[in-house]
Amino acid sequence: MTSATHSTLFPQVPDTADAVLDGLDPEQREVATALQGPVCVLAGAGTGKTRAITHRIAYGVRAGILQPSSVLAVTFTNRAAGEMRGRLRQLGAGGVQARTFHSAALRQLQYFWPKAVGGNLPRLLERKVQLVAEAAARCGIRLDRNELRDVTGEIEWAKVTQTVPADYPAMVAKSQRDAPRDPAEISQVYAMYEQLKRERTVIDFEDVLLLTVGILQDRHDIADHVRRQYQHFVVDEYQDVSPLQQRLLDLWLGDRDSLCVVGDAGQTIYSFTGATPDHLLGFRTRHPGATVVKLVRDYRSTPQVVHLANGLLAQATGRAAEHRLDLVSQRERGPEPAFVEYADEPAEAEGTARRIRDLIAAGVPAGEIAVLYRVNAQSEVYEQALADAGVPYQLRGAERFFERPEVREAGIALRGAARAGGNDSLLDDAEGLPAEVRAVLSTKGWRSEPPAGSGAVRDRWESLAALVRLAEDFERAKPGATLSDLVAELDERAAAQHAPTVQGVTLASLHSAKGLEWDAVFLVGLTEGMMPITYAKTAEQVEEERRLLYVGVTRARHHLALSWSLSRSPGGRPGRRPTRFLNGLRPGSAGPGGRSAAGTAAGGGGVERPVVARRKPRGPARCRVCGKTLTDAGEMKLMRCDDCPSDMDEALYERLHDWRAVRAREIGQPAYCVFTDKTLMAIAEAVPGSEGDLAGISGVGARKLGRFGAAVLDICAGGDGSEGSAEADGEM
């Protein structure tokens, strides 16, 4: 036996059933030992729910109460199912089936299809978009690529809510759902899609559940077979179960009650896909004798983060709010959450990047930091700010801004219009750069008003709207700029953000952050209209937005910052308001009862209220050549207008550029993580002769000064940058 066997990679399997219970807190132990009858575990964020239910299964198996092959644990993602199987193996319960609803149903369908129907199971349609497109064409309905994605999503929603095509319009009206097209048209496409599937003998993923339900309902002998095989069920993330999944679970169970469900109504954020917390909230009504255990000991987050999370849900309304869990942190005290107000969006992005750079300099790994926003279109300004700050980043759940199809298409259209110049009829009535961009992008789906509802069409509009805003900002910073100038700026930004993916700060939407956690989390863009999002109209939709923010807050282990900006662009009218969800929680704001949060302490737990982190007022940055006020981040780095004369030492710039390329290869990071081009230009213009001079240049922080400063000063003095390299290498 090697020493590695005792490492965390190869944990020792518990010797006995009782040893499986070691290390569990009292509530987790109660879950693990409650093996009879229905059990409902209400588990808050960070409370160790996966630990509790895997130890429950393992304890039952090791104690001889449960047979491994008779247990079916279901969850919602392959990643979660894989994690559960891994933990069960480590606990000595490797024979237990842990699957997603779809994979469990597909396995049963493949096994029983020849007996129930005859022949081979129809081919599984991996992607339904192409068939939906054909169905729309047969109906004479034209859908662009984004509408196609949205209509496909509507068909999926209809099927998991067990809504047939004819009933779809009425169901949309009843649920107050924002349909991406006329519901009657979607109903037509839905019906034709189902017809095409029958003609071609194919099934989709929703059919896997529907057909399994149908067979179990119609063939009692097959249902009995399944029930003899699986006698004990565990369902994770039960708040996300759809009506169709609940129907399948009921058929698996039959008249038995050997069921354990785990969930948190406060984390229901996928109702647009058909998920509903009703099954979790109504569990005790359906199972009056159920054992109910609450897990509220939070092992993830500091008391300060937990206090804010509890405060968010304390103001919630509706049925889910009646079952909210008050978490109790088990960690040492940490820093107060920072509430930061910025003048505009670029300032918010740059300020966030600076704070992240400071955290990294203080020893927090970049991979343990996340920036979370409401919609993916918000990522571009943060991609740019982090690149300018020399901070590596990675996107989760979305393409980089300039890699998105609609952004690439828009870039091609703008480039074509720039080449055509005055010969493009699109630009005949457009005066000024922003008007020209709006005219060009109107051919790609941009309109002055956003489309109703969410989905791919809205995402596309948000991306195009971000380009329009960028054009407005560019024209404000460079009066008289042409379409060609803007295209060159877009190309430069795209090039800076197409660096190889490295271990870095995570940029992600709040939805895609579910199930993850980081040491430091920055929740950005928290203004009315974005949080809650404008298309959240009903009280329940607004409450789901509150829960989405709650999920964001509870991703943070130690550091948490929440920020918003008063206007979109520099110099804009400061008409924005911070999200209503922070009323009474952020300093200076009044809650529903009219009490201000500023300077007050929480009752009971004695945890102090978060302290605001305010930006220090500063004067405008002015060009050192002409004295004009600077607004562009790149110009502010150089402290001069781009079109003002440069006194840059070209030879020095080239030497710095070559040194940077070599250094980036040595440390295995993109070149901009050493210094950005603008910073190199600023150094070549200033030609610093001391550490103090170099530290005064924007883009050269304390960390980079210590790491690269000696080499840069050596190059500025005429050397080759070798001086200080050994010392810098020693810091790696």
Automatic annotation (TrEMBL):
Keyword flag Metal-binding: no
EC number in record: 5.6.2.4
Pfam families: HRDC, UvrD-helicase, UvrD_C
Gene3D superfamilies for the chain: 1.10.10.160, HRDC domain, P-loop containing nucleotide triphosphate hydrolases, PCRA, domain 4
Domain UvrD-like helicase ATP-binding: from-to ranges: 22-302
Annotated catalysed reactions: Couples ATP hydrolysis with the unwinding of duplex DNA by translocating in the 3'-5' direction; ATP + H2O = ADP + phosphate + H(+)
Molecular function GO terms recorded: helicase activity
Domain (UvrD-like helicase C-terminal): residue spans on this chain: 303-558
Stretches for region Disordered: 567-615
Keywords carried by this UniProt record: ATP-binding, Helicase, Hydrolase, Isomerase, Nucleotide-binding
Enzyme superclass (EC): isomerase
UniProt-annotated binding residues for ATP: 43-50
Domain HRDC residue range list: 646-726
Residue stretches of biased makeup (Gly residues): 590-607
Residues forming coiled coils: none
Taxonomy, superkingdom: Bacteria
PANTHER family from the UniProt entry: ATP-DEPENDENT DNA HELICASE UVRD2 (PTHR11070:SF69), UVRD / RECB / PCRA DNA HELICASE FAMILY MEMBER (PTHR11070)
Similarity annotation: Belongs to the helicase family. UvrD subfamily.
Record-given protein name: DNA 3'-5' helicase
